[in-house]
Design goal:
With 204 residues, this protein is an all-alpha fold. It contains nine helices and two strands. The chain has three domains: 64 residues, Orthogonal Bundle (Arc Repressor Mutant, subunit A); 34 residues; 64 residues, no CATH class.
Amino acid sequence: MNKKKYLTKITPIQERFIDNYCSKYGEWSATQCAMAAGYARSSAHTRAAELLDWRKHPDIAMEIQERLAGLREAWDINKDKHLAMLTKIRDEARKKGQYGVVAKCEELRGRVSGLYIERQMTLHKELSTEDLHDKMKQIFPSKAHFLKEQQNLMNEIFPDDKDGIQISIPEDVDLKSKKDAKISKGGKELIDKINKIDDGEKDA
């Protein structure tokens, strides 16, 4: 005849710990459950850890697992349970005159039942090259503004780069006549690229 390896009797204080631990699961810590069961505050943490250790108290661990398994079925949520709970809360709130809660419960009941449809739409418009150029011209009214912002951006990205491209352009300079503009080699290449873009648009 096989005998259980562990054959112990759960004491009243241990039973209270089990009751507290399962009924307050997720609300109280194991230490709080032990203190509420009657264990001394100074040893409650240690006693709780021992009671939850299946190697020391397998009977208690098994009892807790069985009870929690039953509670998990009650905790499991589905549409019917959710509607029933909202209805219960709504009715209790109505008795107390809490009409804001009543209205919220009705809204949530409607959402659960699919009476409300929430749509979020994000529209993306693909810009053509011409549209993109127009947008850029709105941001940068002239080539001088464009180059100045490029210089500011380069200074922000490479603040310690003393050998980088430096462009000195007065704001009132017309870059189509570059006689008075002091532009480095890199800046000259950038202007040439812009001119090529402009010439390409004119030919098109």
